Amino acid sequence: MKRMRRLLVIGCLWLPLIALARPEAVPSVALEPAQQQWLDTHRSLRVGLVLQAPYAQFDRRLQQLYGANVELVNALAQALRLDLTWRNFADQASLEHALQAGEIDFAPGLTQTPASLRLWLFSDPYMRVPQLVVGPRTGAMAVELEKLEPDQRVAVRMPSPLADYLRSNYGTLNLQGVPNEREALQLVVGGQASYAVLDEAQLSRLSRESEFGELAVVGDIGLPQLLRVGSRRDWPLLADVLERGLQAMPAKALEQLHQRWLQPKYPRLSESAGFWQNLAMLFGMLLLCALATLIWQRRQQRQLERSLLATRENLAERQVREEALRLSQFAIDQSTVGILWVNWDSHVRYANHAAERMLGYGEGALLERPLSDFEPNLNMDRWLELWRGARAGEGGVGQFETHCQRADLSVLPVELSLSFLRFRDAEYLVVYIADVTERHRALAALRESEARLKGIAGNVPGLVFRLERDPAEGDLEFPYISEGSEALVGYAPAEIQHPQMGLRNLVHPEDRSDYHRVQDLALAGNQDWSWQGRILTRQGEQRWADIKASTRRLADGRVVWDGIVWDITQGKRAELALARSQEQLRELSAHLESVREEEKARIAREVHDELGQMLTVLKLEVSMCELAFAELDPGLNERLSSMKRLIAQLFQLVRDVATALRPPILDAGIASAIEWQARRFEARTQIPCLVQVPDNLPALSDAKATGLFRILQEALTNVMRHAQAHSVEIELVREAGQLRMTVSDDGTGFCRDQTRPTSFGLVGVRERVLMLGGSMTLDSEPGEGTSLSVAIPLEQETDRDSSAGGGRPHHCP
To answer: Localized where (predicted)?
Structure first.
């Protein structure tokens, strides 16, 4: 069976050669005199072919070329009477390299692209190769790509212009990329893809295999491949001659050429008209060649198998390399970094799109230009020095910054990176261009910001610092200390930045423990910290400082505290002086209040005792006068009765004055005094007053009892004047070594933020409480009533009572 397949392949190779032996008659070509004269001097031409079935193939056994493009060129040679020399190439790149080297004159079967126009002069298309949609024969006979469902896969070779066309025009198409057309058809046969898209030429080559006999053409995508004849650009008359030769070829001959080589054919016995004839010819040839080739075949079988295997591996490896090369070329063309390939003479051989955009040139305008057009300072000596340094692998010339001149004569700051490259027996220096305009702007802005920050920090009346902690090692350091340190503490920034110095050694020894506690707590929790205390200068001078630092975390994980040390010596001294003044004023106020209370008590006693005694004597004298002389004169009796009434009013007035100065009820204890004051408030205002006083209250000093009583009087006076209350509650409670008195009402209340500057009632209450060493709480809301709570300590009272033997306290002046 293997021998039969080999013989079948040999017979199939003979068929096109037999057909090639009978070329169609091509009429003579009418040329212009100049064209005819040029052709007479250039009869011998070199033809370049890219070996790709079915356009051009080479039979190694017969040492002959065959294919559609071979037949076409033979027909042109016959019509123009040319003497041809054939050269075949593995790929398009090799063909173009040979053209640039002057080794070929023209080539058939080329596709016109913007890049190839720089190398070839193209004829009009002589053959249209459509891109076809292939699917199973059992499926639909006509397929439109835009109507395919998303779950229907379409296999196509990637990367390729065909794949780019499908991706850009059919956005919803589910494309599946494959390395070659054979795998695309295999996916359709295996059911892994619904359809495959490939050109008619590749389909005609693959459709002859029995593996793809069940596939059929189901559509045309409308993107044909137009085959042209390309010739040397420096021989325009050759292009005109070839164009005349193509125009002279009959359309029928081109159609037959298309049907013979590009029309898909499927190996079905029932549908092939020439199958039995070809089979008979094959058996006849087999009988003639079997004996001659049998021995040679046996000898060459193993060698051929090894060669085929090696060739297949080489082809697969070449396809992989070509695919990688195409991907690399695409990546270079689409890169955002400008890339130039430069010869040793500093002329550009390749430039990607990014380099053209950066330098302001159009597509292809950078080619063959010297680098001095873009960098005027780059003379030839400097260039050769860079070339030799890059070629020798010296690191000093690998990367540097410079300024390039764009096409509009503007200057562009760039960073150049050089890399030496050897490619296809040629040496290049690859220049990578990066636009650093934004980087320069950012650096300039950063420098300006740093200068502004240093200027601000240097003029701040204090010390600005930055404290950092490395997350890996955990060490703390001061990377920045402002110049204001010398004015503040007399130390230079470098001295404070020393690991053995820091800010801690500037703190006063008596305040150092508190500073360590605040700072260590903030450093442990990565929190902001603030501290006020004393620091010492280099000269030993004591100053007050306010240290504040705010924390932030950098992108690399470091924790940074930005802080400032303010000199608050003047303010602190003023604050301490003010505090001492306030304390002295409070002591003076307490002394004056004590003196006033004592004076009130003395006046009350004198009024009560002296005036009371005098009024009593006066009342007795009036009574004696009434007994002795009332009967003598009726008018005198009336006068004496009036005097007795006035004396009674004076008695009441004396009692009221004495009570106002110091109520005698205070001598009975604070509880009785509170109950007495509440009853007087009820009698005067008709407002119910509920009093809650415990039974076992300790004895208070006269000063504290009088103070609590005056506070109660002021609170009840405010209720009477402003509260409009319906009831008042007074509570006296002993709790946690304190005696707390609370006065609450259900009146209108007030907003505590709205204070009246002319009202000193609450100010007096607060001062009395501070003088007693207690605290005051005031709660009030509009419409919710008011609650005043006063607490005074009892411990000192007990100690003072025991030391004084229970007597009245003594007030120092």
So the answer is: Cytoplasm
In a domain, 261, yes or no: yes
53-91 pLDDT, tens digit per residue, is 888 888 888 888 988 889 999 988 888 888 999 999 988
Q: Which domain holds residue 686?
A: 665-813
Query: Which residue in the block uniquely carries the two structure tokens 């392949």?
Result: 9
CB 230 within 8 Å of CB 7: no
Please give the structure tokens belonging to residue 619.
């009342």
Q: Say what percent of the chain tops pLDDT 70.
A: 82
Give the residue with greater pLDDT, 265 vs 713: 713
One-letter amino acid of 68:
A
What is the C-alpha separation between 468 and 562, in angstroms, rounded? 9
- CA-to-CA distance for 12 and 4, rounded, in angstroms? 12
In 668-756, which ranges are E strands?
689-692, 728-735, 738-745
Contacts for 379 with CB less than 8 Å, ≥ 6 apart: 372
453 and 359 in one domain? no
* Cα-Cα-Cα-Cα dihedral sign, residues 30, 36, 40, 46: negative
Flag whether pLDDT at 662 surpasses 70.
no
Q: Is the peptide bond before 54 cis (omega within 30 degrees of 0)?
A: yes
Separation between Cα atoms, residue 285 and residue 71, nearest integer Å: 24
The answer to whether 600 and 778 have CB atoms below 8 angstroms apart is no
Q: Please check whether residues 28 and 62 belong to one and the same domain.
A: yes
Q: How far apart are CA 519 and CA 752, in angstroms?
A: 37
Return the closest-CA partner of residue 778 out of 765, 768, 767. 765
Which tokens go with 556?
A: 């690399």
Residue among 536, 548, 478, 528 at smallest CA distance from 507: 536
φ, ψ for residue 440, nearest 5 deg: -65, -40
**CA proximity to 210, closest of 185, 192, 187:** 185
Is the pLDDT score of 601 beyond 70?
A: no
Distances (CA, A) of 618 to 53, 484, 623, 645: 154, 86, 9, 12
CA distances (Å), origin 61, targets 64, 65, 397, 454? 8, 11, 55, 86
Q: Are 232 and 116 in contact (CB under 8 A)?
A: no
**Among the listed residues 711, 721, 718, the one whose alpha carbon sits nearest the alpha carbon of residue 772:** 711
- Other beta carbons within 10 angstroms of residue 478's beta carbon come to 19
- Please report, for the domain that includes residue 776, its CATH number: 3.30.565.10
Torsion of CA 664, 669, 670, 671, to 10 degrees: -110
Single residue among 609, 641, 662 that ends a domain in this structure:
662
| Rg for the chain, CA atoms, rounded | 58
Q: What is the mean pLDDT of residues 565-578?
A: 74
pLDDT value of residue 46: 93
Residue 315 domain-assigned (yes or no): no
Split into its structural domains, the chain has a count of: 6
Q: What is the CATH number of the domain that holds 179?
A: 3.40.190.10
